[in-house]
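Figure 6 in text form: structure in, sequence out.
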């Protein structure tokens, strides 16, 4: 299978993560350092003041972090599974309309893989900014991920 025919990280996440499909998340940019994911304005996911529900924004930010993690470490899936360890979110301003999450890997991927190579269970942060269409930041999220090595075959 050629690289051109391989599905993108966004396509893989849409196919394999039901909440991504439920919220109709869009993945305009995904690299091993950064992912941009968009939550379209949908009244079914509004809160009591007419903006996206906090749970939808949490899922948006977590999905953006998952996309950058998959892009950075997808080649490690045969020996480790990426897992979110902990997350903190701060809602700073009212989000209205379409919201975009921009996630950035907080540690060089090569450093994380080197730690895995040494037999460790590396942890690494992903920082996410949530913003309205006009660019106003409405929230920030920080997620610590790990690569948990698979148990040895017995």
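Output sequence:
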């Amino acid at each position: 299978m050629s690289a051109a025919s391989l599905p993108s990280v966004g396509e893989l996440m849409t196919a394999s993560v039901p909440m991504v499909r439920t919220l109709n998340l869009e993945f305009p940019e995904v690299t091993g350092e950064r992912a941009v994911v968009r939550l379209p304005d949908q009244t079914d996911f509004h809160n009591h003041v007419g903006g996206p529900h906090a749970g939808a924004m949490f899922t948006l930010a977590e999905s953006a972090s998952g996309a950058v993690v998959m892009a950075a470490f997808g080649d490690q899936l045969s020996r480790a599974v990426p897992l979110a360890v902990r997350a903190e979110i701060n809602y700073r301003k009212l989000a209205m309309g379409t919201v975009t999450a921009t996630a950035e890997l907080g540690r060089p991927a090569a450093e994380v893989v080197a730690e895995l190579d040494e037999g460790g269970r590396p942890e690494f942060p992903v920082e996410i900014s949530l913003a309205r269409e006009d660019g106003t930041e409405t929230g920030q999220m920080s997620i610590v991920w790990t690569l948990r090595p698979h148990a040895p075959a017995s």
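Caption detail: The first strand starts at residue 26 and ends at 30.
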